[in-house]
Structures are given as structure tokens and as C-alpha cells.
Design goal:
It is built from 25 helices and 29 strands. It is α+β, with helices and mostly antiparallel strands. The strands form nine sheets. The protein has a seven-stranded mixed β-sheet with strand order 2-3-4-5-1-8-9, sandwiched between helices.
Length: 804
């Protein structure tokens, strides 16, 4: 046999397989994964550690007799070799398990393109190359390859894992016994959990690595590298040491990172541009009813969150609110007139209103579909565990055998899914074991309906290993509890509610409705109590009986008064991390696995900060706002999700074998390069914005001037330089992060007596010409963005300013 530069003596010395014994090399994505799978596939999980000094005492014959799992250390850190005998391909086989630690290679530019002084445009046309980033691990793979006849790849079952498969194959296949370069004995193991049934099923159903999915990853890496590096190098060098208050060491751009920031800045602008509006509504005041008279039965319960983010049953409840049918009016005089009408009616009717109807109806709410990655991340964020941290915890739980594979887009379970064994594994839990026992008591377990099968992995579920509060730390347990409870909830019956709606009429025209909710069957919320609706009670005195409702009868009820409440419309809140995740998924920014990374990146770059304020709120910083506004002023699509979403669709086509990788990459690079050239030519446009935002106050000499028509805050008048020996001016909105150039022949500028532009509502200014003999009014916004009356934008409701 051909041993590829290794003699028989050397092979025996390093513990290679017996001569003539078929040897299969298995490669997992992480050391702990290799160990766990090897333990599950070997006939015994007992392990014998072999020190380097003991190698000579452990020949293959003794290994074959003992059949147990044996582990050897390697020269590569935590990488180990796990060996055992087991039949494979209908022959006696020595199985040797090892691992990588993520990617072995990364895509990069050739050395001559590493120079930051090089024109960034050249990066779009240069060829990239795969560089080995884990040399010692690759060397270990190459050594193991020389004594193996087959290769089984246990990398993560997603596109990224498929790409690592081909990195491993590149190191192993050319050096395998029997002549390198052959792929007949290369197999792909597809599994969803670190459990005996899952890995045994994977061994019985080995497939081949998917080149199309690997190509999709290579395409994404090349596009991200070229776009990100070109823009980052150019803008970093351009802004370097230009403004005293701006840290320009690395002004990064990312095709996913920047649209993620864009979502946050868009919400920020909606908030600061919001103009509160006063409104008035009529409140119906009823007599206070004793709490004892409200309780309908001992089963009336509501779910209240506890301090741990979960929930418990309690007999507390809340009184249903009576809501005015007009909701609110924006004219105070109308509210006063209607209040007077109702008050006069109550005086004449001895403070009696008319209860005109009560409607009772049952409502069933189906259990949630299975939990996919995005749903897990969103829920964890609501529980106070950040998306990036949640993904780390989920991966740890997966590697330790507590949950199934945590990266999946599927929320529907595949046919033949083994629900019973997973439910049975949860019966020993002190906190939700009773729910699991209840499910097993059903005559049959109903397969959950709904959800979407994306064809990748089943939804996230508990795995074979049992977990409780004593076996893991606080955050790990909370994520494990969420996944376990959600899984059990999908198998429980519907939540059944009784909705009660009563209506009171005063003065014939004014109506108020109250909506009560009673839980008839907790159904799936027994497993997820924090998702049960709150119990809302309508006192019996304000409900018609079934007989009265059936006969369309009404009756008088006590009403204390009708009063006016004043309020103001409120702006939207900043995006929660959970909302941001949902927005990214909807717009095709990132994958289920990469979304947490992009959010973590904008936080690490200090473009956003996550503030604990009624949830985890993602608030853009001044730097993030300024960068986003700068991109928008040159090319709005640079901070929008449109370009990236289009690229993601093309990558999907590559993965499905419906598009050629080289054609997709070539077309996308041509479009991105055109955008870069436009950005490069127009970068000076943002100089004023960055100077106004980051130059020191002493350098700027700015003073409050007139009111911004969008955020209603003062614009600052700043000297922006000199032209033909004369000082030039600009107005800067610090809140909006936007600058407005003033007429260049202005010698002085001042507010125009509180007058406002009828088109855009900016406060007007007056500028005097250099000769001091003439003065003209001007609107800062209209001067920089001339109105487009009569254009399609105006006709379609866009207004006279398309950029407004």
C-alpha cells in the first residue's frame, strides 16, 4: 500500500491502524463534539487516557480486543484523537475521531494587496486566495490522512459547516491511503443533536458534501471582504486626523453591519422628528366594586412574571377598562361639548347609563410552532439575555448534549420526528416534569401544526442529556428552560378563552366598551405560563345575562360621571434588540446564525449602544448617526438593506444549484464597484457634516440660530471656511446630524422674525450681500433641496421635497 512519504515503522510508532485493517477518519467541528460523538458511537463510553510514554504499550491488537474508546493527546492544544473499533461499510474498521476548531482557512487578498496605500478600487478586480489560518490543525489532519482509507465529516449542518467540510477535504483527501484525490470514500454525516439516536441515524444515512452550499459561502466571503475592506480603507484614510473629536483609527463599513445600523438610525430619526399632538377623550367613571364580588371562581387566575423572567399562576386580576368608541378627538371644544352632553344626560337620568349588550364568545389559540434560531434569539433578548450571548449559550448547550442543533430556520417538525423519547427525557425535571408526564398520558402525541420546514434542521428541542438548575449556571439554565418549555408547549392542546364584551350607552350617541378575558383551559400555556393572557374582569353588575342578551334587553347601570382626559401622542420607542432581530430577518440581513454577530459588531464599534430600558433598547450613538447620515447623503442604498437582500437571494440560488458562483460574484462586484466609485467621488459632501459633528466647539464658533422644521430644535450657525477672502456659513442640526449650506455671497445671516417656510416648516433666515446694501430671505432646507412642485414625487404624495 501507498503510505505517502511514511514508512511502515513510522506508521506503527505513531499508533496508526493495523496493516490491512480499514481505517476511517472522522472530523468534527470542535474537540468536545468529536469526543461526544465518539463516545456515543463506540460500544463503551469508558475512556482510557494514553500518555505519550504509553504509546508502545497499546498496539492495535489490544485495542481491537477491548472495543472501548481510547483517547490520545496530540501536539495541537486541545485536539485529541479518539479511537475505537466498529464495523463500517461491511468490514472491520478502526474509527479515529478528531476535530478542527472552526474554519481551517479564510479568504484574503494576496500579500501585495495588503498595503493600505494601494488604490482600494483595485481590490474589486484582484483575485482572492484561501489562506491557512489554523496551520497546526491542518498539519494534524494531513498526518492523520496518511493512515486512513475513508473520511466522515461531522461538521455543523449548515452552509458554514459545509464550507469547512471542503477545507478539511482539501487537507485530507490528497493524502489518504490507496491513492490521494479520490472522493468515493468521503462521506457527510447529517445530525441534529448530540444523542445516541441522532448520531446512529447519521451513520446509517451518510451523504456526500454539498459543493453548492460551500460555493455560496465562498461567494459571500469574497463579496463581504472586497466591499468591506475597500470602503473601510478608503474612508478611514480620508478621515484620518481630520477632525479633533473623531476617532478615525478604523472607520469600518460592512455590507450587513451598516444596514443593521441603518435600521436603528431610521427609528432614531422617527423619534426626534415626531411632533406631539394634544388629544382629548371621555372617561367613563363607574362605582368601585368590592374585590370579593369580582372573583368568579377559584379557577380564575392570571399569569404574572416573576423575578426570574418566567411566570407563575396567581389569583390576582385586573378590572377591564371601558374604552370610548371615538377613542380620542384632537379638538378640545368638541370634547367639551360631548362631555357636557353626557353630564346633562346623567343629571336627568339620576346618574344612570344604559347597558345595551353583552357578547360572550369562546376563542381557541393554537400552540406555537417549533422554535427556530430567530425565535430563540428574540425571546432570549426579551428575557434580558443579549442575542450574541444567547447564541454562545445555545452552542454550549448543544455541544454538551442538552439541546439539538441551535442554528435552524425551520419551525415545523419533519415527518417521523421522535417526540416521545424527548418528552420522556423531561419527566424527571422538578419544574416542568409534570407537564411532560401529562403529554405522555395522552393516547397519542399530536404532531404540532403550522410552522415552516426550511429543509435544514428540525426546530430546536431538548436533547438526550437531562438538565436542571444544579447542572448548569443561571443563564444557561434559563435558555435551556425556555427551549424545553417551548418544545413541550408545541405538543399541548389549544389555549381556550372566553371573551366577554359589554357596552354602555349615554345620551344615545356616546358609547363605551369593556372587554373581559377568562381562561377556560390553559392548554399549551401550562408549559409557557408567561405567554398566557392576563385575566380581565367585568363586574357582574355590568354584564347582561345570557337570557337578557338573547332577548335584546337592556338595563340601566350606575355611572358616577363622564370626565375629560387630556393626553399627547407619543413617539415610537427605540428598537428593542428583539425587534431589530425581526427586522433584520424580514429584510434578509444576515442569516439566523450571523444576526447576533452583526448586532454585536455595531455595538463593539460604538455605533450603537444597548440600554436596559423597558427591554434591551438599541440606541445609535452620535458616531453611528453621523456615519449613517453621511452614507445617505452620498448613496442612500449604502445604509439600506436593499443591496444586501438582493445579494442574499443570489447566494441562495448558488446554494440551490440554480446559479453559477462566478457569474453571481462578477455581477455583484460590478455593481458594488460602481457604488464605491460614486462614493469616492462625492466623499467631500460629508466634510461639513463631520466637521460640524466632531470639530471642537472652539474651532466651530457655533451659535443657536433658527428652528429645524423636522425635529423642532435649534440649528447652529457655524463658519464653514473662507471663499474669495470672505467667510462662508452653514447651519447644522445636531439632532438630525445634517448640515445646510448658506448662500455663498452672504456677509451676515440672522433669523427673520420668527417666520417659517410654508413648504417645509423650517424657520426662515435673512442674509445680507457682501456690499451690505441688499438683504434676502431664504429657507435653509429649500435652498439646499429645491422644491419639486409638479413632479411625480409631489403628485404621489411625496411633497415638494423628495428628501423630506
Amino acid at each position: 500500500q501507498h503510505h505517502d512519504m511514511m514508512g511502515d515503522d513510522e506508521e506503527e510508532e505513531r499508533g496508526g491502524g493495523e496493516r490491512g485493517v480499514f481505517t476511517c477518519l472522522h472530523v468534527a467541528e470542535k474537540p468536545s463534539l468529536a469526543k461526544s460523538i465518539a463516545q456515543l458511537l463506540s460500544s463503551s463510553s469508558e475512556e482510557k487516557k494514553l500518555d505519550d510514554d504509553d504509546d508502545d504499550d497499546c498496539d492495535e491488537s489490544s485495542l481491537g480486543n477491548k472495543r472501548g474508546l481510547k483517547t490520545k493527546k496530540t501536539t495541537v492544544g486541545s485536539i485529541e484523537i479518539h479511537e475505537f473499533y466498529r464495523p463500517f461499510l461491511r468490514k472491520k474498521c478502526l474509527h479515529r475521531f478528531t476535530s478542527v476548531a472552526g474554519h481551517v482557512c479564510s479568504i484574503d487578498f494576496p500579500d501585495k494587496f495588503q498595503d493600505w496605500d494601494l488604490d482600494p478600487k483595485l481590490l474589486f478586480d484582484c483575485k482572492t486566495e484561501k489562506k491557512v489560518t489554523a496551520g497546526r490543525i491542518r498539519g494534524s489532519l494531513e498526518r492523520e490522512a496518511r493512515t486512513c482509507d475513508a473520511l466522515v465529516l461531522w461538521l455543523d449542518c449548515d452552509r458554514e459547516g459545509e464550507n469547512i467540510c471542503f477545507e478539511v477535504m482539501d487537507a485530507v483527501v490528497p493524502r489518504m491511503r490507496g491513492g490521494g484525490g479520490r472522493y468515493e470514500n468521503v462521506y457527510r454525516a447529517k445530525f441534529s443533536a448530540i444523542s445516541k439516536p441522532s448520531v446512529e441515524n447519521a451513520m446509517k444515512n451518510l451523504t456526500k458534501p454539498n459543493k453548492n452550499e460551500s460555493d455560496a459561502v465562498d461567494a459571500r466571503q469574497e463579496l463581504d471582504l472586497k466591499m468591506g475592506v475597500a470602503f473601510t480603507r478608503f474612508q478611514t484614510k480620508y478621515f484620518q486626523d481630520k477632525f479633533s473629536g473623531f476617532d478615525s483609527r478604523c472607520v469600518s463599513y460592512g455590507p450587513c453591519q451598516t444596514p443593521t445600523l441603518g435600521f436603528c438610525v431610521k427609528r432614531h430619526l422617527e423619534i426626534i422628528r415626531f411632533v406631539p399632538e394634544s388629544f382629548w377623550r371621555l372617561k367613563l367613571n363607574l362605582p368601585t366594586v368590592a374585590a370579593a364580588s369580582l372573583k368568579q371562581s377559584d379557577d380564575d387566575v392570571v399569569i404574572v412574571d416573576d423575578d426570574n423572567g418566567m411566570a407563575t399562576k396567581t389569583t390576582s386580576y385586573e378590572i377591564a377598562e371601558w374604552k370610548w368608541h371615538r377613542e380620542r378627538v384632537f379638538d378640545e371644544s368638541s370634547a367639551i361639548s360631548l362631555e357636557a352632553l353626557c353630564s346633562d344626560f346623567l343629571k336627568k337620568k339620576d346618574k344612570k347609563g344604559t347597558l345595551v349588550g353583552t357578547i360572550r364568545s369562546k376563542q381557541s389559540k393554537r400552540p406555537p410552532p417549533g422554535m427556530n434560531t430567530v425565535e430563540m434569539l428574540k425571546t432570549c433578548s426579551k428575557m434580558g439575555i443579549g442575542a450574541h450571548r444567547a447564541m454562545q449559550i445555545a452552542e454550549r448547550l448543544y455541544l454538551d448534549g442538552f439541546i439539538s442543533y441551535p442554528r435552524t430556520e425551520s419551525s415545523a417538525y419533519p415527518p417521523g420526528f421522535d417526540f416521545k423519547s424527548i418528552v420522556a427525557s423531561q419527566t424527571s425535571n422538578d419544574e416542568w416534569g409534570d407537564v411532560a408526564k401529562k403529554i405522555l398520558s395522552f393516547s397519542s402525541i399530536r404532531k404540532p401544526s403550522g410552522g415552516q420546514d426550511a429543509g435544514d434542521h428540525p426546530p430546536i428541542t431538548p436533547a438526550g442529556r437531562f438538565g436542571n438548575r444544579n447542572s448548569m449556571n443561571g443563564e444557561m439554565f434559563r435558555v435551556y428552560e425556555l427551549i424545553s418549555r417551548h418544545f413541550l408547549a408545541t405538543l399541548l392542546p389549544d389555549l381556550v378563552l372566553e371573551n366577554i364584551e359589554s357596552e354602555i350607552v349615554i345620551a344615545e350617541s356616546e358609547r363605551w366598551k369593556a372587554k373581559g378575558v377568562k381562561i377556560l383551559d390553559f392548554g399549551w400555556t401550562e408549559a409557557l405560563p408567561r405567554r398566557a393572557p392576563k385575566l380581565k374582569i367585568i363586574p357582574d353588575a355590568y354584564q347582561l345575562s345570557d337570557n337578557e342578551s338573547k332577548n335584546n334587553k337592556s338595563r340601566d347601570v350606575d355611572v358616577i360621571s363622564v370626565t375629560i382626559e387630556r393626553g399627547e401622542t407619543q413617539p415610537p420607542n427605540y428598537l428593542t434588540e428583539s425587534e431589530l432581530i425581526g427586522t433584520m430577518e424580514k429584510n434578509g440581513i444576515g442569516t439566523d446564525a450571523s444576526i447576533p454577530t452583526h448586532i454585536n459588531t455595531v455595538e463593539a464599534r460604538k455605533y450603537c449602544e444597548i440600554v436596559l430600558r423597558d427591554g434591551r433598547r438599541v440606541i445609535p450613538t452620535d458616531l453611528g448617526i453621523t456615519l449613517c447620515r453621511a452614507y445617505a447623503s452620498i448613496d442612500e442604498e449604502l445604509a439600506l438593506p436593499t443591496v444586501r437582500a438582493h445579494i442574499e437571494k443570489q447566494l441562495d440560488l448558488i446554494a440551490e444549484g440554480k446559479a453559477d458562483k462566478n457569474a453571481v460574484v462578477s455581477q455583484a462586484l460590478m455593481q458594488i464597484k460602481a457604488k464605491f466609485i460614486h462614493f469616492e467621488k462625492n466623499i467631500a459632501i460629508v466634510d461639513n457634516l463631520f466637521e460640524a459633528s466632531f470639530a471642537s466647539p472652539k474651532e466651530l464658533q457655533s451659535t443657536p440660530h433658527t428652528v429645524c422644521g423636522r425635529c423642532r430644535r435649534y440649528l447652529k450657525l457655524q463658519a464653514s471656511g473662507r471663499r474669495h477672502g470672505r467667510k462662508t456659513f452653514r447651519l447644522f442640526c445636531e439632532t438630525e446630524a445634517e448640515t445646510f449650506e448658506c448662500p455663498r455671497n452672504a456677509s451676515s445671516i440672522k433669523p427673520w422674525s420668527g417666520r417659517f417656510c410654508e413648504i417645509c416648516d423650517f424657520e426662515l433666515s435673512i442674509y445680507e450681500t457682501s456690499d451690505g446694501e441688499r438683504a434676502y430671505p431664504f429657507c435653509p432646507f429649500c435652498y439646499n433641496h429645491p422644491p419639486d412642485f409638479g413632479t411625480s414625487s409631489s403628485k404621489s404624495g411625496g411633497g415638494p421635497h423628495s428628501v423630506l
